[in-house]
Amino acid sequence: MVLTGVLTPRQATDALPVWMYLLLVGSLTMGGALQQTGAGDAIGNALAGVVGNLSNQYLIGFVFFIVPFVLTQFMQNRTVMMIFIPIAILACKSMNANPVSVIILVQAACLTAFMTPMATPAVPQFMAAGGYDLKSVLKQSVLPSVLFCLISVFWTMTVIPMH
Questions:
Q1: Closest-CA residue to 62 (of 6, 94, 108)
Q2: What is the pLDDT of residue 160?
């Protein structure tokens, strides 16, 4: 809207609520802290240990979808993706498996981060524009999230098997 001249930069800035700026800064700080402290790596290493004991590729795909998906609700999706893609590659290498399907599932999980405002900057923007609160966003996003998880895991692991 600023580029087309509908709003001046000052008007666009004034239209956004202060809580949205604080939320974005807080989520970036949280993601950076998890990355700097090594907590993200610890979660990833624990995940690789669990996956190493599974033999069903659909369960492995589910684990590599659900853990990044849950983490993206509290961290920025790009941060989670940068942590989990190398872990997915290393886990598949240790299982002598093709990592392509697992990488696709990690990316799909990270890119479907829309349940909480911390997940991606787009969520607080549509919450502010539409007047939504966190409760209504959660109610509206649970069913699509479950469906996307089930369909993604089934389709990806069927079309691009690990072995």
A1: 108
A2: 94
| Secondary structure class of 15 (helix, strand, coil) | helix
Name the nearest CA neighbour of 48 among 33, 63, 62.
Answer: 63
The residue ranking higher by pLDDT, 137 or 43, is 137
Please state the three-class secondary structure of 80-130 as a single string: HHHHHHHHHHHHHHHCCCCCHHHHHHHHHHHHCCCCCCCCCCHHHHHHHHH
C-alpha span between 163 and 161 (Å, rounded): 6
DSSP character at residue 143: H
Q: Contact at 8 Å (CB) between 99 and 88?
A: yes
Cβ atoms of residues 157 and 102 within 8 Å: no
pLDDT at site 34: 65
Chain-centroid distance, C-alpha 39: 16
